[in-house]
């Protein structure tokens, strides 16, 4: 089940660290390669020698080791893994992860990684229930970190409650689910998503942009990755964090966005959620435009490339499923149907962005899905949902389309 999967296991300093021996053994039995990082605290509970014997690999621990860095830099450590697992994840390491600290090898790797991360918290019940720990874990989960446990039960410290590390068997199950279990129907498929606004320069200090927050596109990329798709997100400037487990390419202009999308092909599916500027200034000035008493400048505008249309017309590189959005303020469904034809895409998600709906920049969206079948002349009306819910539903519909949805 886990054959060929590479797991980077961080063992932090908690009494539950002894369970990681069993965890490593079970992972190896299923064909996974396990490489360990042992924190200073972890080394108070288990030895590097035992982890090395069980994993049959070198155990890492020292960020300042010149030999380790020359053989296998700390960035390389996470690059060579498919999944990072922290077990036990103590209150301390969770706080450091949430705060973005890089104070030792384990936290540096966890901060530097763009790979999915799973944590198995283990601590005293009061530490687990403390508002600080709860805020930290909520923040980590919002960033896409997968949590397994903790369980309720007797604790090594004599108390009873939540905080026992999940049993190795349950952690292995969660890891198996993560890699191609029933919840990952898009495993093996490649997805391309565009998100956010674009920024079109007028001169070195001024630009034309729009109010797109990128929330919808980012949520779609996270949802597709969550269903197992290898996902690339090409985004204009936004203030959102990069979704975990997604390769993110940051661009500014529509032309950069198109180039990044073309470079990301081939893909099985493309979802264009970016609010691309339709026009740009024909000749952006190299120097800052000055007032100079001559009155306001007149800007000559020219049309930007249409990324959705280009992807839909990409010949033999065309993704099998091309999905666009139609931001409309009137005749929403009728205009969206026209837009689907004009762009040559398969599905279009029509949404009303008139000011009263608060869709643009807001947290919710009301969607009409056009082109995916449905009883009302190929239109599916979705209730008003959060952008995360829209993303989840779209990802499920895409998975069904590819024959693997629930
Ligand atoms: N789109 C794109 N590249 C552009 C313009 C739009 O990829 N240069 C994509 C958007 O990501 C969206 C779809 O096309 O998926 C429709 O965008 P929308 O703003 O609704 O439509 P426009 O093409 O801009 O048409 P209009 O402004 O006339 O409604």
Show the helix and strand layout.
Blueprint: E1 6-11, H1 19-29, E2 33-38, H2 48-55, E3 59-60, H3 66-71, H4 74-79, E4 83-89, H5 91-99, H6 105-112, E5 117-121, H7 125-129, H8 131-142, E6 146-147, E7 151-154, E8 160-164, H9 168-178, E9 190-195, E10 200-203, E11 206-208, H10 215-226, E12 230-235, E13 247-250, H11 254-263, E14 269-272, E15 279-281, E16 301-303, H12 307-312, E17 321-328, H13 332-343, E18 347-352, E19 364-365, E20 367-370, E21 379-381, E22 385-386, H14 387-401
Parallel strand pairs: 1-2, 1-4, 2-3, 4-5, 5-6, 9-12, 9-14, 12-13, 14-17, 17-18
Antiparallel strand pairs: 7-8, 10-11, 15-16, 18-20, 19-22, 20-21
Helix pairs in contact: 1-2, 1-9, 5-8, 10-14
The structure holds cytidine-5'-triphosphate.
Cytidine-5'-triphosphate binds at residues 194, 254, 272-274, 276, 278, 304, 306-308, 324-327, 339.
Structural domain tally: 2
Please list the strands of the largest sheet in the order they lie side by side. 13-12-9-14-17-18-20-21
Task: Please give the radius of gyration in angstroms.
Answer: 24 Å
**Major β-sheet annotation:** 8 strands, mixed
What is the name of the CATH superfamily of the largest domain?
CoaB-like
Which architecture of the largest domain per CATH?
Answer: 3-Layer(aba) Sandwich
What is the average of the pLDDT values?
92
Q: Report the structural category.
A: alpha/beta
Helix content: 25-40%
Uncertain parts: none
The CATH topology of the largest domain, please?
A: Rossmann fold
Shape: globular
Count of DSSP strands? 22
């Amino acid at each position: 089940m886990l054959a060929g999967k590479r797991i980077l296991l961080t063992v932090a300093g908690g009494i539950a660290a002894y369970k990681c021996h069993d965890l490593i053994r079970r992972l190896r039995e299923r064909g996974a390669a396990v490489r360990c990082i042992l924190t200073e605290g972890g080394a108070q509970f288990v030895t590097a020698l035992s982890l090395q014997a069980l994993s049959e690999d070198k155990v890492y621990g020292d960020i300042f080791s010149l030999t380790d860095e020359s053989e296998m830099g700390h960035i390389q450590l996470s690059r060579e893994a498919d999944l990072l697992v922290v077990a036990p994840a103590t209150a301390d390491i969770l706080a450091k992860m949430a705060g973005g600290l890089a104070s030792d090898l384990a936290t540096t790797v966890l901060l530097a990684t763009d790979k999915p991360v799973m944590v198995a918290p283990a601590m005293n019940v009061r530490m687990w229930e403390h508002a600080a720990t709860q805020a930290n874990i909520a923040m980590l989960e919002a960033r896409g970190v997968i949590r397994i446990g903790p369980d309720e039960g007797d604790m090594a410290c004599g108390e009873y409650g939540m905080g026992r590390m999940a049993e190795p068997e349950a952690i292995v199950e969660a890891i198996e689910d993560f890699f191609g279990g029933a919840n990952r129907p898009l495993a093996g498929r490649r997805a391309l998503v565009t998100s956010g606004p674009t920024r079109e320069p007028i001169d070195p200090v001024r630009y034309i942009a729009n109010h797109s927050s990128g929330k919808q596109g980012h949520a779609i990329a996270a949802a597709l990755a969550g269903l197992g798709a290898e996902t690339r997100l090409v985004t204009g400037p936004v203030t959102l964090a990069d979704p975990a487990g997604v390769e993110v390419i940051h661009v500014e202009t529509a032309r950069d966005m198109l180039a990044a999308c073309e470079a990301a092909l081939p893909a099985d599916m493309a979802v264009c959620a970016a609010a691309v500027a339709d026009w740009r200034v024909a000749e952006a000035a190299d120097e800052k435009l000055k007032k100079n008493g001559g009155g306001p400048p007149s800007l000559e505008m020219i049309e930007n490339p249409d990324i959705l249309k280009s992807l839909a017309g990409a010949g033999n590189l065309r993704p099998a499923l091309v999905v666009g959005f139609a931001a409309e303020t009137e005749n929403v469904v009728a205009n969206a149907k026209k837009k689907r034809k004009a762009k040559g895409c398969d599905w279009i998600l029509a949404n009303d962005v008139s000011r009263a709906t608060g869709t643009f920049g807001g947290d919710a969206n009301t969607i009409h899905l056009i082109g995916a079948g449905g009883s009302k002349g190929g239109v599916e009306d979705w209730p008003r949902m959060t952008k995360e819910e829209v993303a989840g539903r779209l990802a499920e519909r895409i998975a069904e389309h590819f024959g693997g949805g629930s």
